[in-house]
Amino acid sequence: MNASRIVGLFLAFGVAWILISDRILEFLIQDPHARQTAQSVKGVAFVLASTLLIYVLVRQAERERSRLEAETLREKDRLARVLEVAPAVIYSLRADPTGQGFVTDFVSDQIEPMMGYRVDQWMAQPDFWRQHVHPDDLSQVERAQQTLFESGSVHHEYRFLHADGVYRWVNDHLILQRDADGRPAQIHGAWLDISERKRVELAMIEADRRYRNLFRLNPQPMWIYDEDSLRFLSVNEAAVNKYGYSRDEFLAMTVLDIRPPEDVARFQAMLADHEASGRSQLFGGVWRHRKKDGSLFWVEIAGHSLEFDGIKARLILLTDITDRYQAEERLRLISHVFDASQEGISITDAHNRYVSVNRAFTRITGYEPEEVIGKTPAIQRSGRHDKAFYEGMWQQLREEGHWEGEVWNRRKSGEIYPQWLIITVIKDAQGQVQQYMGIFMDSTGRKAAEERIQRLANYDILTGLPNRTLLFDRAKVAFATAGRTHAPVVVMHLNVDHFQHVNESLGHEVGDEVLVTLAQRLLTALRPEDTVSRLGGDDFIILLPHITARDVATVAMRLMSAVAEPVDVRGQELRLTASVGIAEFPENGADLVQLTQAAESAVSQAKREGRNTFRFFSRSVQDQVKETLVMERDLRLAVERHQLVLHYQPQIDVASGRLVGMEALVRWQHPEWGLVPPGRFIPVAEASGLIREIGRWVLGTALQQNAAWAAAGLDIVPVAVNLSMAQFKDPGLRDAVIEALQLSGLPANMVELELTESVAMEDSNFTIATIDGLKRLGVALSIDDFGTGYSSLSYLKRFDIDKLKIDQSFVRGLKFDPQDEVIAVTVINLAHSLGLRTIAEGVETQDQLDFLRAHGCDQYQGYLYSRPVPADEAVQWLSPRRALADVSQ
Ligand code: C2E
Ligand code: MG
Ligand code: MG
Q1: Which residues make up the environment of ion ligand 3, defined by Cβ < 5 Å?
Q2: Strands (E), 522-656
Q3: Which one, of 569, 552, 390, 545, lies nearest residue 476 by Cα?
Q4: Alpha carbons 58 and 42: distance in angstroms, whole number
Q5: Contact 855, 874 (CB under 8 A)
Q6: Pairing of strands 344-349, 88-95
Q7: pLDDT by residue (tens digit) across 637-670?
Q8: In the sheet that 539-544 helps form, which strands lie side by side, from edge to edge?
């Protein structure tokens, strides 16, 4: 109840009393005197009533006020407590009466714990707030104020100087209040210290920026791809550089596109696995990737799943491990060779302490690896060599990096034995000695003893001839070689006619003596490379590798006459005859079992037709004999009738893809038979001696062709010419080469001669002298079909040759036959260790080439690049010469 209400009520009561009470008195009391008295009483009554009324009203008003006061107090108290606990500073500003701006009206006590200032400090200075805003944030703060006046409220963040001298980030939320006229009257605001949040936020921005930089500028290729579509979403600089695709090209591709097609299935299987295993966060693996230029390399990937712009994606980090991978692969192969070698191999470190030995080492020395590792080879010393011997060895090792010779060493058992030892120093790129490699073989009589045991297992006890086991082994080798050289192999079955009469009439002992005699005769009737073996009884099997068809009948007759010579038994002269059956590989059978059956049926045929004769299983050999005779007759005229032609096959540098040579391959354009391949007529030429003339023609023609190309201004490459064994043995060879060089006018380094591996198998002074003689002319020498023979690498070292041609039979197995791969890699590595280059022939597929490249093969030739083609087509590979001086010197 307020004052005006109280007064209003009292006024109404008073006026009502005055107006109504007198009237009532006049009406009720006529007597004036009594009315007078009543008047007084009425007056007193009025005073009393009005007093009462006022008392009631005032009392009521008082109560109301104290209730309000209590409420206000409570309210104030509550507000104070709220302000106290609020993390914010609450403040209000009031419009300056001068209209100059705003002055602080109120700041909550919270300012002290938050900013370190007391309220009175703040209130004392009108410009306190502005003076403490970070200078860099002032302009932004002013813009916020502008917004406040325009829109009535604003939220902004800025830095404010704390009393401790360090700026804090604050969030300021302001609301503008206008007066009735719409003029800004008051501003209410709340301030919050957001330094912590801001710190985290800035740290995140920084982390993000760093992360992006890490991705963008990382020297390792990285990318992000979509888990579902497999598309690239982002790739870094290093990936662009490494793969050769531009960023845009990358983004248009999927991760499948950078793999060789044959790896895609495995990759997809990996993805499916990954999916099935609940998409683990982290994953890795080793893969082959393909660059834009098609080249392949090995990468190790590490990746993890992430969300990229809302897409489920994977971040991939790649490391090129091609070198490591190849090194591992090489190591694996080398360790295979290391373990399989029959020769003892040991590796010692720079201080000559054993670090590794192979199985043969243990077999020969008796020492297990763990017994020698860490020790020096001195543990094997026998005491047979003096100090000077070892000093000489070390001196040579220091000067030449190599030592070879016989050393007497002591086995673990104490036995002293001679070994042939080859030591090679292995140096690093800086020429520092890293290791020593020792290769040795036991050169004692033990070998001979082993051979005797071998004999017992492989030879017929009665006659001393090879038995069935050895025959089978030799046959296997003969057929394998024939498969490659296409030279025929013949199997003969010889049976002595009516031999059972000898046994019956003269007894088994005499029969055995006769067999021994016949065996000796058969042996002497044959070439060393032939095998005669006794199957039992009077049955002999004769294996004749690479025999020419025309010799077959001669050999059969020689064998028959060997049997027909009279045999002297205990004073009696015995006359015997034999029948021979002949079968030919591969026409009459694919293996020895089939061939001996065929030969046996031919021998039965001979017996049926009167004995003391020979029969072919089929007529094919006889046909061939005829064909060979015709061929020989025609071949005599081939050179003068210009029927021989040369085709050329390019030899390509594996690393650069550049042409580095051409092999000349002869063909015979026969008027009836068409183009005859060399495999068919070269053996005939060799057997008939025509090879000298043909060889001379090939050499002369190849050189003249090359000279003609040079004269036509082309940048020529060395031409490789094949020499067969018969040519190599021809004493006129060197003169023929000199003559061809002179006639063509070509420098000797434009010629390469390909020798067959059998040349290298003969470690004779003649071979060495012939090779040296050719080398002195300046021509290059290579060993053809390397790996098919049995040449020992230690022989090879003695010949001054330049290049090994890995035979095509191994190249064919690359990428699927691990044995061929091991051989190819071993040939490459060993050739390199001997300082020779390698060329692979018969390369037909990209896979084979990739393998060869990965294992360091220098050159290749094969259908993959081109078949041998006539000279007028071969010219396409030669480019115009850059400088005239190139060929004339
Ligand atoms: P070679 O010297 O080992 O020659 C390689 C043979 O492999 C050639 O057969 C060649 O045509 C063939 N060749 C090349 N690339 C591939 C390929 O990718 N796949 C397959 N499957 N074969 C390929 P060609 O011309 O029939 O010669 C056979 C052999 O005849 C030669 O073997 C060589 O030993 C001999 N020969 C060729 N010309 C002469 C010659 O003028 N004189 C002598 N003495 N022998 C020759
Ligand atoms: Mg060749
Ligand atoms: Mg070859």
Answers
A1: 784-785, 841
A2: 531-536, 539-544, 567-569, 572-574, 578-585, 614-616, 644-653
A3: 545
A4: 23
A5: no
A6: unpaired
A7: 998 899 999 999 999 999 999 999 999 999 999 9
A8: 531-536, 539-544, 489-496, 578-585, 614-616
pLDDT tens per residue across span 483-541:
777 778 999 999 999 898 888 888 888 899 999 999 999 999 998 889 999 988 899 99
Ligand nearest to the CA of 690: 1
Q: Decide: helix, strand or coil at residue 798.
A: coil
pLDDT score recorded for residue 78: 85
Predicted confidence at residue 663, as pLDDT, reads 98
Ligand number, closest to the Cα atom of 785: 3
Contact 335, 344 (CB under 8 A): no
784 alpha carbon – ligand 3 mean position (Å): 5
Q: Ligand 2 mean position to 788 CA, how many Å?
A: 13
Strands in 12-136 per DSSP E:
88-95, 102-107
* 495, 582 contact by CB (below 8 A): no
**Residue 751 phi, psi (nearest 5):** -130, 140
CA distance 282 to 280: 6
Contact 679 CB / ligand 1 (< 6 Å) = yes
pLDDT per residue over 31-72, tens digit each?
A: 888 888 888 888 888 888 888 888 888 898 899 889 999 998
Q: Supply the residue whose CA is at minimum distance from atom 7 of ligand 1.
A: 842
> What pLDDT is recorded for position 889?
39
- Grouping H, G, I as helix, E, B as strand and the rest as coil, residue 527 is coil
Residue 187's DSSP bridge partners are 93, 176
pLDDT band at 887 (very low <50, low <70, confident <90, very high): very low
What is the Å distance from ligand 2's center to 585 Cα? Answer: 25
Q: Check if 665 has its Cβ closer than 6 Å to any atom of ligand 1.
A: yes
DSSP letters along 216-274, please? Answer: HH-SS-EEEEETTT-BEEEE-HHHHHHH---HHHHHTSBGGGGS-HHHHHHHHHHHHHH
Q: For position 885, what pLDDT does the model report? A: 45
Does the pLDDT of residue 280 top 70, yes or no? no
Residue ID of nearest Cα to ligand 1 atom 13? 842
Phi-psi region of 464 (alpha: psi -120 to 50; beta: other; left: phi over 0): left
Atom index in ligand 1 nearest the CA of residue 864 equals 18
The two structure tokens encoding residue 726? 């018969």
Is 152 a pocket residue for ligand 1 (Cβ < 6 Å)?
no
Kindly report the protein residue whose alpha carbon is nearest to atom 11 of ligand 1. 868
Atom of ligand 1 nearest to the CA of 724: 44
Residue 863 Cβ < 6 Å to ligand 1 = yes
- The dihedral region occupied by 230, where left means phi > 0, alpha psi between -120 and 50, and beta the remainder, is left
Residue 793: what pLDDT? 56
The predicted structure's pLDDT at residue 446:
54
Read off the pLDDT of each residue in 178-189 and give the average, rounded to a whole number: 89
Q: HSE (CB half, 13 Å, CA atoms) of 73? A: 6
Q: How far apart are CA 321 and CA 696, in angstroms?
A: 51
Residue with tokens 């606990």: 85
Question: Which atom of ligand 1 sits closest to the CA of residue 723?
Answer: 44
Name residues whose C-beta falls within 8 Å of residue 100's C-beta, 6 or more positions apart in sequence: none
SS3 663: strand
Bridge partners (DSSP) listed for residue 418: 408
Rounded to whole angstroms, the Cα distance separating 241 from 261 reads 22
Residues present in the chain in total? 889
Output the CA torsion sign for 113, 114, 119, 120.
Answer: positive
CA distances for 748 relative to 653, 701, 723, 738, 744, angstroms: 21, 15, 16, 9, 10
User: Residue 888: which pLDDT band, with cuts at 50, 70 and 90?
Assistant: very low
CA distance 158 to 167: 9
Is any atom of ligand 1 closer than 6 Å to the C-beta of 650?
Answer: no
